[in-house]
Amino acid sequence: MFVEGVKLALSEDLQRQIDRLVTTTAGRWRVSENRKALEALICFKTFKKAWEFMNLVADKASKEKHHPEWCNVYNKVFIRWTTHSSSAISGKDVQMAIFCDEQANALGALQETPFESSLGSLLRPITEA
Ligand SMILES: C[C@H](O)[C@H](O)[C@H]1CNC2=NC(N)=NC(=O)C2=N1
Q: Interface pTM (ipTM) of the complex?
């Protein structure tokens, strides 16, 4: 009983953190369609800013042993946090997403990035260009 109670409290806390990320970041973060990942499209002013961001996240990922699925085109970074051994978003995913959000803000990432419109051009196969 006690353990179950702790589990419940933890997942409620996680859900609250996820809700906060999704609702307070102006469309930057969303829960993936299969609900197993947190994803963001982050738009920087320059390529150098995007690269700086990726370096900071790379350092943190090595320390935390939790690595992003991501891609970069010029000033945009698409980033996804998911945990392979889990069927749901984990605390580590949320921790990394919050870290990314803080770093993105510190690097002056553009606040409002319409997810759908920008993602299309970022991931479009090069043959269609
Ligand atoms: C053994 C090692 O810690 C695991 O393979 C880690 C590595 N980094 C990881 N990163 C992410 N995002 N999810 C994982 O499940 C994961 N597993």
A: 0.88
